[in-house]
Amino acid sequence: MFGLFKRKQKQVALFSVCDGILKSIEKVNDTVFADKIMGDGFAVTPVSGRVSINSPIKGKVMSIFPTKHAITFVTDEGVEGLVHMGIDTVALKGDGFNIFVEEGQSVDHNTRLAEMNVDFILEQGKDTDIITVFTNLDENKKLAISETGDVKKAQSIGCITL
Questions:
Q1: How many Cβ atoms are within 10 Å of 126's Cβ, its own excluded?
Q2: Is the pLDDT of residue 108 over 70?
Q3: What is the predicted pLDDT for the residue at 148?
Q4: Residues near 156 by beta carbon (within 8 Å), at least 6 away in sequence
Q5: Cβ 20 vs Cβ 81: under 8 Å
Q6: Can you give the residue ranges of every domain in the chain?
Q7: Minimal CB count within 10 Å: which of 69, 95, 144, 145?
Q8: Which CATH architecture has domain 19-161?
Q9: What is the pTM of this model?
């Protein structure tokens, strides 16, 4: 009898972190992300120059890597994740990145997290994809991204259904 009542599902809205080209995480040039070893997510290949990076979710900044290339977060609903700027950019030791948030700060899709110098990253021979990965999605939480292609910063791109 109790099986007839379905729990109302919540959704976590997802937003593009910058202007660029939205693509599935499977197309990222790093097997840790592409094979979803850390979790499911998406990536945006940014335009050239200095790119302003906004939060992909409404939630709170949990940590900022000392090398400034990654920021962890938790949504208001408890979904944990990571914004990872570039591939193998930890080796740059913070060069090419500026951070504009602090640990514990509340954020939403209009909050500027960081700035990345795309041209500098490319000059260092690194990939510039900005990857958002959700690290604690279980089988009951489904990620849905809208069609890939050109996106603008803070544009709605999908959701996570809890």
A1: 20
A2: yes
A3: 86
A4: 13, 14, 15, 146
A5: no
A6: 19-161
A7: 144
A8: Distorted Sandwich (2.70)
A9: 0.93
Cβ proximity of 61 and 72 under 8 Å: yes
**Active-site amino acid positions:** 84
Contacts for 136 with CB less than 8 Å, ≥ 6 apart: 39, 78, 79, 80
pLDDT (tens digit, 9 = 90+) per residue, 119-139?
999 999 999 999 999 999 988
DSSP 34: H
pLDDT in tens, 83-106: 999 999 999 999 999 999 999 999
Lookup: tokens for 27: 């197309």
Q: For tokens 């603008």, what's the residue? A: 152
Q: Are strands 50-54 and 112-117 parallel, antiparallel or unpaired?
A: antiparallel
* Nearest-5° Cα angle at 25, 16 to 60: 50
Joined together, the tokens standing for residue 157 give: 């791109």
* Confidence bin at 3 (pLDDT 50/70/90): low
Six-digit token string for 75: 């949504």
Q: How far apart are the first and last CA of the chain?
A: 23
